[in-house]
Predict the structure.
Amino acid sequence: MRHLTDEEVDRFFAGRLEPEACRRVVRHILTGCPECQTRLGGHLELGSLLGDDPDPELFDSAVYDEAIDRAVAVARNEIPRWDKEKKQLGRLLEAAQTDPQGILGLLDEAEDFSGWPFVEGLLAESQETRFRDPERMRLLAFAAAVSAINLDRQRYFPGQIADLCARAWAELANAYRLDHDFTASEEALARAETYLEEGTGDPLIVASLLDLEASLRSSQRRLPDTFELLDQVYRIYLQVGEHHLAGRALISKGFNTAFDDRPHEALEILREGLALIDLDRDGQLAAIGRYSLIHALVDCGELRQAGKELLESGLREDFAEDPLNLAKLRWLEGKIHAGLGKLWRAEQVLHEVRTGLRERGQEYDAALVGLDLAAVWLQQGNNAAVRDLAEEILQTFAALGVQREALKAVRYLREACRREIATPALVQRVSGFLRRLEWQPQLRFAP
């Protein structure tokens, strides 16, 4: 059976199709066509209206024609409410932009800011603040989860509520993950999966939960599980025609592949992912993808190309209000300068980045930047400064309680500095080991 046309979809929701044409639309949806189900955008919960697992062979029976007629009637009654709530969501998000507390400042507003639109607004603001304010992200996600559970069950279908609850609890799981509370993240994700089983089976929600689980496994340094989950996410999004989201899955796979010390493979995956995404749809994703691509180029030793990409990327503007990502971008800039022999400029940038990270309490990353700075100083003949810095980094690692192999590597570097036999190559070897160790905790340092 052919796919639905845009005109058929528009006329169906406008109520301008003849009865038999309406039946054809619904029959086609029930065959499981993912492309057309996605285009209808979840407005209908036909499975619950027609019963579980309808038999496609019975679609022409009088019984199913009658059931389809009832489904169409219910759906048409739902359309005005969905249109109204979409407009409410728009007004809600607009009002939240001017309130000092954002959407939470509208809790006591009129009923116009309630129900489904309010939960959607909470989720939207939670996602928007995930890098700028993790604590607020968690608060918003928790509010969304509670609000979703308490939606009016006379107003919405049970499957629709379950879908929204699954999304809200998944967002809360992600907030806990970003706060490094992996136990709470696991619990929230399990709750989301329970709601998912009670929902409509929307493939986009299934893929979204798998994507968030992949992020959690990545944070737990379980990279094989991460790759398996992201491959599932990628396949689902391609099946439903969501090429942008399929590209996002590839970008996630790309930077996880880089963490797995496969930079050349990561580079190809990232390029493929960036080619799929809609740059105007998610500027933050595009920025992260470009940053990851530049990082992979540096890791592959393609420094001139990395520098060119950085200059043309616009990432400084994209990260202007995101100090941590801006610092990491500047860190890459310092490494590019160092690799191209621009030692004075590299020293200036790396020192600036290290100071900024320490001011924000990012001591571990500041120590890694310090190692890159030490390699520059050794090339400049500033051995005394390198010796002092190696001692300082060792004390920092000891205070942070890093694992034994990390301490072993830095202690080895400190001893080499004391004996004045340290070289830039040794510093880079120690630095590379520490970066790999973060993602491959089973590694052992061999002097």
